[in-house]
Design brief:
This protein is of the alpha+beta class and 433 residues long. The protein has a single domain, classed as Outer membrane efflux proteins (OEP), CATH 1.20.1600.10. It contains 11 helices and 4 strands; from the N terminus they run H-H-H-E-E-H-H-H-H-H-E-E-H-H-H.
Length: 433
Protein backbone atom coordinates (compact mmCIF):
# COMPACT_ATOMS: atom_id res chain seq x y z
CA UNK A 1 0.00 0.00 0.00
CA UNK A 2 2.86 2.39 0.82
CA UNK A 3 4.50 1.62 -2.53
CA UNK A 4 1.21 2.18 -4.38
CA UNK A 5 0.70 5.52 -2.62
CA UNK A 6 4.22 6.66 -3.58
CA UNK A 7 3.71 5.67 -7.20
CA UNK A 8 0.34 7.42 -7.34
CA UNK A 9 1.98 10.70 -6.31
CA UNK A 10 4.65 10.55 -8.99
CA UNK A 11 4.57 12.74 -12.07
CA UNK A 12 4.40 11.20 -15.50
CA UNK A 13 6.32 12.15 -18.62
CA UNK A 14 4.67 13.19 -21.85
CA UNK A 15 6.63 14.21 -24.90
CA UNK A 16 5.97 17.72 -26.25
CA UNK A 17 7.79 18.16 -29.55
CA UNK A 18 8.67 21.59 -30.90
CA UNK A 19 6.47 22.90 -33.72
CA UNK A 20 7.78 22.55 -37.24
CA UNK A 21 6.73 26.11 -38.14
CA UNK A 22 5.53 29.22 -36.31
CA UNK A 23 4.31 32.61 -37.47
CA UNK A 24 3.11 35.89 -36.05
CA UNK A 25 -0.51 37.00 -36.18
CA UNK A 26 -1.61 38.09 -39.65
CA UNK A 27 -4.46 40.36 -38.51
CA UNK A 28 -5.56 42.38 -35.50
CA UNK A 29 -8.49 40.04 -34.93
CA UNK A 30 -6.04 37.28 -33.97
CA UNK A 31 -4.69 39.32 -31.06
CA UNK A 32 -5.88 38.50 -27.58
CA UNK A 33 -8.06 41.27 -26.17
CA UNK A 34 -8.67 43.02 -29.52
CA UNK A 35 -12.05 44.71 -29.88
CA UNK A 36 -12.97 45.54 -33.47
CA UNK A 37 -15.39 48.18 -32.20
CA UNK A 38 -12.47 50.22 -30.84
CA UNK A 39 -10.87 51.66 -33.96
CA UNK A 40 -8.68 53.58 -34.44
CA UNK A 41 -6.64 52.54 -31.42
CA UNK A 42 -5.77 55.11 -28.79
CA UNK A 43 -2.75 54.93 -26.51
CA UNK A 44 -4.51 52.89 -23.81
CA UNK A 45 -5.79 50.31 -26.32
CA UNK A 46 -2.32 49.84 -27.79
CA UNK A 47 -0.79 49.42 -24.32
CA UNK A 48 -3.29 46.70 -23.40
CA UNK A 49 -2.79 44.79 -26.64
CA UNK A 50 0.97 44.95 -26.16
CA UNK A 51 0.71 43.62 -22.59
CA UNK A 52 -1.46 40.73 -23.73
CA UNK A 53 0.34 39.78 -26.93
CA UNK A 54 4.00 40.84 -26.76
CA UNK A 55 6.11 37.75 -27.58
CA UNK A 56 8.89 38.63 -25.13
CA UNK A 57 6.41 39.06 -22.27
CA UNK A 58 4.84 35.71 -23.07
CA UNK A 59 8.27 34.14 -22.74
CA UNK A 60 8.74 35.90 -19.41
CA UNK A 61 5.45 34.41 -18.19
CA UNK A 62 6.95 30.95 -18.70
CA UNK A 63 10.02 31.98 -16.68
CA UNK A 64 7.72 33.18 -13.91
CA UNK A 65 5.96 29.81 -13.83
CA UNK A 66 9.31 28.03 -13.56
CA UNK A 67 10.30 30.29 -10.64
CA UNK A 68 7.05 29.51 -8.83
CA UNK A 69 7.63 25.78 -9.22
CA UNK A 70 11.21 26.20 -7.97
CA UNK A 71 9.84 27.98 -4.91
CA UNK A 72 7.59 25.03 -4.17
CA UNK A 73 10.45 22.58 -4.60
CA UNK A 74 12.76 24.50 -2.26
CA UNK A 75 10.07 24.51 0.42
CA UNK A 76 9.61 20.72 0.53
CA UNK A 77 10.75 18.89 3.64
CA UNK A 78 13.65 16.47 3.15
CA UNK A 79 12.66 12.81 2.95
CA UNK A 80 13.68 10.42 5.74
CA UNK A 81 16.21 7.72 4.80
CA UNK A 82 15.24 4.08 5.30
CA UNK A 83 17.82 1.29 5.10
CA UNK A 84 18.03 -2.43 5.72
CA UNK A 85 19.81 -5.64 4.87
CA UNK A 86 19.48 -9.37 5.41
CA UNK A 87 22.22 -11.91 6.25
CA UNK A 88 21.28 -15.47 5.34
CA UNK A 89 22.88 -18.20 7.46
CA UNK A 90 25.42 -20.10 5.39
CA UNK A 91 27.27 -22.04 8.15
CA UNK A 92 27.84 -22.07 11.92
CA UNK A 93 25.75 -22.61 15.00
CA UNK A 94 23.06 -20.06 14.27
CA UNK A 95 19.56 -21.05 13.28
CA UNK A 96 18.03 -17.81 11.89
CA UNK A 97 18.52 -15.15 9.24
CA UNK A 98 20.20 -12.00 10.49
CA UNK A 99 18.79 -8.61 9.53
CA UNK A 100 19.21 -4.93 10.23
CA UNK A 101 16.85 -2.01 9.61
CA UNK A 102 17.18 1.74 10.10
CA UNK A 103 15.37 4.99 9.58
CA UNK A 104 16.97 8.44 9.89
CA UNK A 105 16.22 12.06 9.22
CA UNK A 106 18.72 14.69 8.05
CA UNK A 107 18.61 17.34 10.76
CA UNK A 108 20.80 19.85 8.93
CA UNK A 109 18.26 20.13 6.13
CA UNK A 110 15.58 20.85 8.70
CA UNK A 111 17.72 23.55 10.32
CA UNK A 112 18.26 25.33 7.00
CA UNK A 113 14.70 24.76 5.74
CA UNK A 114 13.29 28.12 6.88
CA UNK A 115 15.98 30.35 5.32
CA UNK A 116 15.88 28.25 2.15
CA UNK A 117 12.11 28.75 1.94
CA UNK A 118 12.54 32.49 2.51
CA UNK A 119 15.19 32.64 -0.21
CA UNK A 120 12.99 30.71 -2.64
CA UNK A 121 9.98 32.96 -1.93
CA UNK A 122 12.04 36.11 -2.36
CA UNK A 123 13.54 34.76 -5.58
CA UNK A 124 10.07 33.99 -6.96
CA UNK A 125 8.85 37.47 -5.98
CA UNK A 126 11.95 38.92 -7.63
CA UNK A 127 10.94 37.24 -10.90
CA UNK A 128 7.44 38.73 -10.54
CA UNK A 129 8.86 42.21 -10.01
CA UNK A 130 11.24 41.70 -12.91
CA UNK A 131 8.34 40.71 -15.14
CA UNK A 132 6.42 43.81 -14.08
CA UNK A 133 9.48 45.93 -14.94
CA UNK A 134 9.62 44.23 -18.33
CA UNK A 135 5.97 45.18 -18.79
CA UNK A 136 6.73 48.78 -17.84
CA UNK A 137 9.55 48.92 -20.38
CA UNK A 138 7.41 47.40 -23.12
CA UNK A 139 4.58 49.83 -22.33
CA UNK A 140 7.06 52.71 -22.41
CA UNK A 141 8.38 51.57 -25.78
CA UNK A 142 4.83 51.25 -27.10
CA UNK A 143 4.04 54.79 -25.93
CA UNK A 144 7.12 56.16 -27.68
CA UNK A 145 6.22 54.34 -30.89
CA UNK A 146 2.66 55.66 -30.86
CA UNK A 147 3.93 59.19 -30.23
CA UNK A 148 6.48 58.95 -33.04
CA UNK A 149 3.98 57.41 -35.45
CA UNK A 150 1.24 59.95 -34.81
CA UNK A 151 3.63 62.90 -34.89
CA UNK A 152 5.39 61.36 -37.87
CA UNK A 153 2.17 61.36 -39.90
CA UNK A 154 1.74 65.07 -39.16
CA UNK A 155 5.34 65.75 -40.15
CA UNK A 156 4.91 63.81 -43.39
CA UNK A 157 1.80 65.82 -44.22
CA UNK A 158 3.64 69.12 -43.68
CA UNK A 159 6.70 67.93 -45.59
CA UNK A 160 4.48 66.79 -48.44
CA UNK A 161 2.96 70.29 -48.65
CA UNK A 162 6.44 71.80 -48.78
CA UNK A 163 7.51 69.37 -51.50
CA UNK A 164 4.35 70.06 -53.55
CA UNK A 165 5.04 73.79 -53.48
CA UNK A 166 8.72 73.37 -54.33
CA UNK A 167 7.95 70.77 -57.00
CA UNK A 168 5.47 73.14 -58.68
CA UNK A 169 8.12 75.85 -58.77
CA UNK A 170 10.73 73.33 -59.94
CA UNK A 171 8.51 72.26 -62.84
CA UNK A 172 8.09 75.83 -64.03
CA UNK A 173 11.81 76.48 -63.67
CA UNK A 174 12.73 73.39 -65.69
CA UNK A 175 10.29 74.44 -68.42
CA UNK A 176 11.74 77.95 -68.48
CA UNK A 177 15.31 76.64 -68.62
CA UNK A 178 14.40 74.27 -71.45
CA UNK A 179 12.83 77.15 -73.36
CA UNK A 180 15.98 79.24 -72.88
CA UNK A 181 14.16 81.86 -70.83
CA UNK A 182 16.19 81.27 -67.67
CA UNK A 183 19.74 80.33 -66.73
CA UNK A 184 20.07 77.13 -64.64
CA UNK A 185 22.84 78.71 -62.58
CA UNK A 186 20.52 81.47 -61.43
CA UNK A 187 17.96 78.98 -60.08
CA UNK A 188 20.32 76.31 -58.78
CA UNK A 189 19.32 77.03 -55.17
CA UNK A 190 15.65 76.61 -56.02
CA UNK A 191 16.28 73.24 -57.65
CA UNK A 192 18.42 72.16 -54.68
CA UNK A 193 15.62 73.13 -52.26
CA UNK A 194 13.18 70.87 -54.12
CA UNK A 195 15.69 68.01 -54.07
CA UNK A 196 16.31 68.48 -50.35
CA UNK A 197 12.57 68.49 -49.63
CA UNK A 198 12.14 65.29 -51.60
CA UNK A 199 14.99 63.64 -49.68
CA UNK A 200 13.54 64.79 -46.35
CA UNK A 201 10.15 63.33 -47.25
CA UNK A 202 11.71 60.02 -48.27
CA UNK A 203 13.60 59.86 -44.97
CA UNK A 204 10.40 60.52 -43.01
CA UNK A 205 8.52 57.83 -44.92
CA UNK A 206 11.28 55.26 -44.38
CA UNK A 207 11.37 56.07 -40.68
CA UNK A 208 7.59 55.79 -40.49
CA UNK A 209 7.67 52.35 -42.07
CA UNK A 210 10.35 51.23 -39.62
CA UNK A 211 8.27 52.50 -36.68
CA UNK A 212 5.20 50.66 -37.97
CA UNK A 213 7.16 47.44 -38.15
CA UNK A 214 8.55 47.96 -34.64
CA UNK A 215 5.03 48.43 -33.27
CA UNK A 216 3.86 45.31 -35.11
CA UNK A 217 6.74 43.37 -33.57
CA UNK A 218 5.70 44.53 -30.09
CA UNK A 219 2.16 43.34 -30.79
CA UNK A 220 3.25 40.02 -32.28
CA UNK A 221 1.94 40.97 -35.73
CA UNK A 222 3.44 40.39 -39.14
CA UNK A 223 5.29 43.45 -40.51
CA UNK A 224 2.72 44.21 -43.24
CA UNK A 225 -0.34 44.41 -40.94
CA UNK A 226 -1.75 47.94 -40.72
CA UNK A 227 -2.45 49.12 -37.17
CA UNK A 228 -4.91 52.07 -37.22
CA UNK A 229 -3.94 54.70 -34.65
CA UNK A 230 -5.87 57.68 -33.36
CA UNK A 231 -4.34 60.80 -34.87
CA UNK A 232 -4.57 63.02 -31.80
CA UNK A 233 -2.42 63.06 -28.68
CA UNK A 234 -2.79 65.08 -25.49
CA UNK A 235 -0.37 68.01 -25.35
CA UNK A 236 2.82 67.53 -23.32
CA UNK A 237 2.45 68.40 -19.67
CA UNK A 238 5.01 67.73 -16.93
CA UNK A 239 4.87 69.06 -13.38
CA UNK A 240 8.42 68.94 -12.00
CA UNK A 241 7.22 69.18 -8.38
CA UNK A 242 4.87 66.22 -8.88
CA UNK A 243 7.63 64.20 -10.49
CA UNK A 244 9.97 64.83 -7.55
CA UNK A 245 7.18 63.94 -5.12
CA UNK A 246 6.53 60.64 -6.88
CA UNK A 247 10.22 59.83 -7.04
CA UNK A 248 10.50 60.17 -3.24
CA UNK A 249 9.11 56.64 -2.76
CA UNK A 250 10.22 55.19 -6.09
CA UNK A 251 12.25 52.48 -4.34
CA UNK A 252 9.00 50.96 -3.09
CA UNK A 253 7.13 51.27 -6.39
CA UNK A 254 9.48 50.86 -9.34
CA UNK A 255 9.65 47.15 -10.18
CA UNK A 256 13.36 46.99 -11.07
CA UNK A 257 14.30 48.51 -7.71
CA UNK A 258 11.84 46.24 -5.93
CA UNK A 259 13.33 43.26 -7.78
CA UNK A 260 16.81 44.23 -6.59
CA UNK A 261 15.52 44.50 -3.01
CA UNK A 262 13.92 41.08 -3.28
CA UNK A 263 17.11 39.65 -4.75
CA UNK A 264 19.01 41.12 -1.80
CA UNK A 265 16.47 39.60 0.60
CA UNK A 266 16.88 36.22 -1.09
CA UNK A 267 20.65 36.50 -0.77
CA UNK A 268 20.32 37.38 2.92
CA UNK A 269 18.36 34.19 3.45
CA UNK A 270 20.88 32.23 1.37
CA UNK A 271 23.69 33.58 3.56
CA UNK A 272 21.84 32.56 6.73
CA UNK A 273 21.35 29.08 5.29
CA UNK A 274 25.04 28.88 4.42
CA UNK A 275 26.02 29.92 7.95
CA UNK A 276 23.70 27.30 9.45
CA UNK A 277 25.03 24.66 7.05
CA UNK A 278 28.61 25.15 8.29
CA UNK A 279 27.85 22.97 11.32
CA UNK A 280 28.42 19.20 10.91
CA UNK A 281 25.82 17.41 8.83
CA UNK A 282 23.71 15.58 11.40
CA UNK A 283 21.24 12.70 10.96
CA UNK A 284 19.17 11.17 13.78
CA UNK A 285 17.22 7.93 13.53
CA UNK A 286 16.55 4.48 14.89
CA UNK A 287 18.37 1.20 14.18
CA UNK A 288 17.18 -2.35 14.84
CA UNK A 289 18.92 -5.67 14.15
CA UNK A 290 18.82 -9.40 14.70
CA UNK A 291 21.73 -11.79 14.54
CA UNK A 292 21.71 -15.42 13.41
CA UNK A 293 20.87 -16.65 16.93
CA UNK A 294 17.76 -14.45 17.08
CA UNK A 295 19.28 -11.94 19.45
CA UNK A 296 17.62 -8.62 18.70
CA UNK A 297 18.85 -5.10 19.36
CA UNK A 298 17.35 -1.64 18.82
CA UNK A 299 18.02 1.94 19.74
CA UNK A 300 18.66 5.50 18.58
CA UNK A 301 21.30 6.20 15.98
CA UNK A 302 23.24 9.36 15.25
CA UNK A 303 25.59 10.09 12.37
CA UNK A 304 27.46 13.26 11.52
CA UNK A 305 30.39 14.39 9.46
CA UNK A 306 33.65 15.60 10.95
CA UNK A 307 34.29 19.15 9.70
CA UNK A 308 38.04 18.70 9.40
CA UNK A 309 38.45 20.14 5.90
CA UNK A 310 35.14 21.53 4.65
CA UNK A 311 32.92 23.45 7.05
CA UNK A 312 31.13 25.39 4.30
CA UNK A 313 33.44 28.37 4.68
CA UNK A 314 33.70 28.94 0.95
CA UNK A 315 29.93 28.94 0.41
CA UNK A 316 29.59 31.45 3.25
CA UNK A 317 32.23 33.68 1.64
CA UNK A 318 30.52 33.43 -1.76
CA UNK A 319 27.15 34.31 -0.22
CA UNK A 320 28.66 37.35 1.54
CA UNK A 321 30.36 38.57 -1.64
CA UNK A 322 27.13 38.17 -3.62
CA UNK A 323 25.21 40.11 -1.00
CA UNK A 324 27.78 42.91 -1.19
CA UNK A 325 27.49 42.94 -4.98
CA UNK A 326 23.70 43.24 -4.82
CA UNK A 327 23.92 46.05 -2.28
CA UNK A 328 26.28 48.04 -4.49
CA UNK A 329 24.13 47.38 -7.56
CA UNK A 330 20.98 48.58 -5.78
CA UNK A 331 22.68 51.71 -4.44
CA UNK A 332 24.05 52.61 -7.86
CA UNK A 333 20.71 51.97 -9.58
CA UNK A 334 18.87 54.19 -7.09
CA UNK A 335 21.38 57.01 -7.48
CA UNK A 336 21.49 56.87 -11.27
CA UNK A 337 17.68 56.81 -11.41
CA UNK A 338 17.56 60.12 -9.55
CA UNK A 339 20.17 61.56 -11.89
CA UNK A 340 18.17 60.38 -14.91
CA UNK A 341 15.02 62.05 -13.62
CA UNK A 342 16.85 65.32 -12.96
CA UNK A 343 18.45 65.23 -16.42
CA UNK A 344 15.13 64.56 -18.15
CA UNK A 345 13.42 67.37 -16.26
CA UNK A 346 16.19 69.76 -17.30
CA UNK A 347 15.90 68.62 -20.91
CA UNK A 348 12.11 68.97 -20.83
CA UNK A 349 12.36 72.50 -19.40
CA UNK A 350 14.76 73.47 -22.18
CA UNK A 351 12.42 72.07 -24.82
CA UNK A 352 9.51 73.96 -23.27
CA UNK A 353 11.42 77.24 -23.51
CA UNK A 354 12.25 76.51 -27.13
CA UNK A 355 8.62 75.69 -27.92
CA UNK A 356 7.41 78.92 -26.34
CA UNK A 357 9.88 80.81 -28.51
CA UNK A 358 8.76 78.95 -31.63
CA UNK A 359 5.04 79.61 -31.20
CA UNK A 360 5.05 83.37 -32.05
CA UNK A 361 7.64 82.87 -34.79
CA UNK A 362 5.52 80.12 -36.34
CA UNK A 363 2.35 82.21 -36.12
CA UNK A 364 4.17 85.13 -37.77
CA UNK A 365 5.47 82.90 -40.57
CA UNK A 366 1.99 81.47 -41.22
CA UNK A 367 0.50 84.98 -41.41
CA UNK A 368 3.26 86.09 -43.79
CA UNK A 369 2.58 83.06 -45.99
CA UNK A 370 -1.15 83.85 -46.09
CA UNK A 371 -0.48 87.50 -46.94
CA UNK A 372 1.93 86.43 -49.69
CA UNK A 373 -0.78 84.23 -51.16
CA UNK A 374 -3.19 87.14 -51.31
CA UNK A 375 -0.50 89.35 -52.84
CA UNK A 376 0.23 86.72 -55.50
CA UNK A 377 -3.45 86.56 -56.42
CA UNK A 378 -3.37 90.32 -56.89
CA UNK A 379 -0.29 90.02 -59.07
CA UNK A 380 1.94 91.83 -56.59
CA UNK A 381 4.30 88.91 -55.85
CA UNK A 382 5.92 86.27 -58.03
CA UNK A 383 5.79 82.49 -57.54
CA UNK A 384 9.35 82.23 -56.30
CA UNK A 385 8.84 84.54 -53.33
CA UNK A 386 5.42 83.10 -52.53
CA UNK A 387 6.86 79.59 -52.46
CA UNK A 388 9.76 80.66 -50.25
CA UNK A 389 7.41 82.24 -47.69
CA UNK A 390 5.05 79.25 -47.79
CA UNK A 391 7.87 76.72 -47.31
CA UNK A 392 9.37 78.86 -44.54
CA UNK A 393 6.04 78.73 -42.67
CA UNK A 394 5.84 74.96 -43.13
CA UNK A 395 9.40 74.56 -41.85
CA UNK A 396 8.56 76.59 -38.76
CA UNK A 397 5.56 74.32 -38.15
CA UNK A 398 7.78 71.27 -38.61
CA UNK A 399 10.26 72.63 -36.08
CA UNK A 400 7.49 73.28 -33.57
CA UNK A 401 6.05 69.82 -34.16
CA UNK A 402 9.46 68.21 -33.66
CA UNK A 403 9.91 70.09 -30.40
CA UNK A 404 6.49 68.96 -29.14
CA UNK A 405 7.31 65.38 -30.14
CA UNK A 406 10.57 65.54 -28.19
CA UNK A 407 8.67 66.88 -25.17
CA UNK A 408 6.19 63.99 -25.36
CA UNK A 409 9.09 61.55 -25.56
CA UNK A 410 10.75 63.10 -22.49
CA UNK A 411 7.42 62.99 -20.66
CA UNK A 412 7.05 59.28 -21.45
CA UNK A 413 10.56 58.59 -20.20
CA UNK A 414 9.82 60.44 -16.96
CA UNK A 415 6.58 58.52 -16.48
CA UNK A 416 8.48 55.26 -16.92
CA UNK A 417 11.13 56.25 -14.36
CA UNK A 418 8.61 57.26 -11.67
CA UNK A 419 5.89 54.77 -12.64
CA UNK A 420 3.15 57.26 -13.49
CA UNK A 421 0.30 55.61 -15.40
CA UNK A 422 2.08 52.25 -15.50
CA UNK A 423 0.50 48.88 -14.59
CA UNK A 424 0.85 48.27 -10.85
CA UNK A 425 0.02 44.55 -10.75
CA UNK A 426 0.10 41.47 -12.93
CA UNK A 427 -3.51 41.22 -14.02
CA UNK A 428 -5.03 37.79 -14.44
CA UNK A 429 -5.76 38.21 -18.13
CA UNK A 430 -2.26 39.57 -18.70
CA UNK A 431 -0.75 36.55 -16.94
CA UNK A 432 -2.84 34.10 -18.96
CA UNK A 433 -0.62 31.76 -21.06
Amino acid sequence: MLLAACIAGCATYQAKPLPEQASSASSLSQLQGYDSAVSPLDMAAVERLVLLNNPDLRSQHARRQAAQEQRKQDGVLPNPVVGGNAGYLLSGVGDATAWTASISQDITSLITLRPRREAAQAAADEVDAGLLWEQWQVVGKARLLVIDLVEGERQIALQQQALDALAQRESRIVSAVSAGNMERVAVASDLAAAADARTALNDLQRRQLDLHQQLNALLGLKPDVVVPLAQTLPPPSVDAASIHEQFADVSRRRPDLVALQLGYRAQEATLRAAVLAQFPALAIGYDASQDNSKVRNGGPAVSFTLPLFDHNQHNVAIAKATREQLQVEYTVRLATSRDEVDALLTHYAQLDVQRQALVPATDDAVRASAQAGHAAQAGLLDLRNVTDLHVAALNRQLAQLSTEQAMLEQQTALELLVGRGMPTALEQDVMAP
